[in-house]
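2024-03-11 09:14:02 DEBUG pipeline.ingest accepted 1 chain
2024-03-11 09:14:02 DEBUG pipeline.ingest length=84
2024-03-11 09:14:03 DEBUG pipeline.predict start
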Amino acid sequence: MMNSDVNAKVDLLIDMVRSLDVLRVAETRLLMIRKKPLLDTNDLTYLFHNSSRTINRWRIEGILKGTRIKGRWYYKWAVVEPLL
């Protein structure tokens, strides 16, 4: 009985460490995105947890204003930040 309690606590600790690792990765990616002068559709899908199709629909509907450069869409922080 005591052995199963220890195993349960170890499993819980392992889960907590994994969660911290996931949070660190997310924080690092967010900091990298924050430093960019322009955000692309991939950045926005990460920030908003939406598909690229949703981001494109928002652009078409006028929710997001973007600029097309060499076939790719880019967005300024000033446009994105109020939506977060």
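2024-03-11 09:14:41 DEBUG pipeline.report The mean pLDDT is 88.
2024-03-11 09:14:41 DEBUG pipeline.predict end
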